[in-house]
Amino acid sequence: MNDFIEEEREQNAAPQEKVISRYICTANHGFAPYAQEELRRLFGAVKSTLLLPGEVFLATLETEPEEVARLLAQSPPIFLRHIQPVQFQDTGDASALDRLAVYLSRRKELEGERVSLHVRKGGTSFWEDSPGELREWLQARLEGLGAEFTVQEPAWIVSVYADGDALYAGASRPEENLSSWNGGMIRFRKEDGQISRAKFKLMEAEKEFAIPFSSFSSAVDIGASPGGWTSFLLERGLKVTAVDPALMHESLRKHPGLKILRKNAGEVKFRENEFDLLVCDMSWSPKLMAKLVSGLLHSLTPGGTAVVTVKLMHKKPLAVIKDIIAMFEGERMQIQRAKQLFHNRDEITLYMIKY
To answer: What is the mean pLDDT of the chain?
Structure first.
């Protein structure tokens, strides 16, 4: 009898409401559709609203926030560069910012913590001033939290996105955002005499993938000219062999730690285990690049690292990346990360270790 009563109660109970999580998602310009596809593959149905064409979109997931964070950490996306929770949304009017300040001031978990304020604007916004001015205004309004506002190593990130006539905001741990940088946009100052901006890719990879470049001793740079990546490695104290038929930048040619081979990469011969680092940033088709680099992997020591960019010259980049990864895995390379960095253009960066 009791079993019947319990069964009847379950049948008559109101259906549970679906858990909804909402996020502002960011990819490199033109790659938002692939970031959306990554979310669909992880979470099933995803409702998306484009906010900034090809780059920023609002995603609604029928998944608990904790599960979203867990799955993204377990399967890091390639094209989804940054994600921030939407826990507050308001129409953009004169008092919306006041309501946002009140909402944030009541977030007890922020009290006394190291907090970073990340503020961005869409293509158009009801907020006419700069993101920096909005950040300063918010910080002044949140003094009652007793938080330490910081840029580096925050315990919490408060993210605000003002787009059109809407205002979105949320607070999260840095690791839940996929990047601790505002919008995943890691910025470097161009140095005097810097050979090329390609250097920023390795600088970002160093931070994003935690690659200890200074711990390596000998590197080969395939397709090195004019020398942006070579210059970075020399600065980290490595001996570098640069392979390229084109001329290296004149500032590098007499560097004591550099050996230049003015040949095509397919013509060079290296000894077994000659290098503990191999890098390649050639503008070749993905499969030709992978075949060329694979032919040189014998020169990489077991446990050695390879960092290569994969140019996405064709449609269906997710399929191309899958094929390239399979090619390298067949050459005893273990993929650590595949990601489109902020400083990548129509390409991604692969970080691999030889086993």
So the answer is: 92
Q: Which residues contact 77 (CB under 8 A, 6 or more apart)?
A: 35, 38, 39, 42, 178, 339
Architecture of domain 199-354: 3-Layer(aba) Sandwich (3.40)
Could you report the per-residue pLDDT of 49-74, keeping only the tens digit for each? 999 999 999 999 999 999 999 999 99
The domain 21-184 having CATH identifier 3.30.470.20: the answer here is: no
Single out the catalytic residue among 121, 311, 339, 354.
Answer: 311
Residue 188 buriedness (CB in 10 A; 0-12 / 13-18 / 19+): middle
Instruction: Write down the pLDDT at residue 148.
Output: 96
Beta-strand pair 21-26/88-91: unpaired
For residue 240, CA distances in Å to 26, 163, 216, 220, 258 come to: 36, 47, 10, 6, 5
pLDDT of 45 reads: 86
Query: Which position has the token pair 């990546």?
Result: 229
User: What one-character DSSP code corresponds to residue 248?
Assistant: P
Which residue stretches of the chain are H helix? 2-12, 32-43, 65-74, 96-105, 131-141, 199-208, 228-235, 286-294, 317-329
- Residue 322 known to be catalytic: no
Q: Pick the closest to residue 220 from 159, 271, 148, 288 (CA basis).
A: 271
Q: What is the pLDDT of residue 343?
A: 97
Cα dihedral angle (39, 44, 50, 52), rounded to 10 degrees? 0
Q: Is the pLDDT of residue 10 over 70?
A: no
Question: What ranges do the domains of the chain cover?
Answer: 21-184, 199-354
pLDDT at 341: 98
Residue type, 192: D
pTM of this prediction?
A: 0.90
For residue 83, the surrounding DSSP H or E stretch is strand 82-85
pLDDT at 28 over 70: yes
The packing angle between helices 286-294 and 317-329, to 10°, is 10
Q: What is the pLDDT of residue 17?
A: 65
Under 8 Å between Cβ of 93 and 156: no
E strands present in 194-342: 218-222, 239-243, 258-261, 275-280, 300-311, 333-339
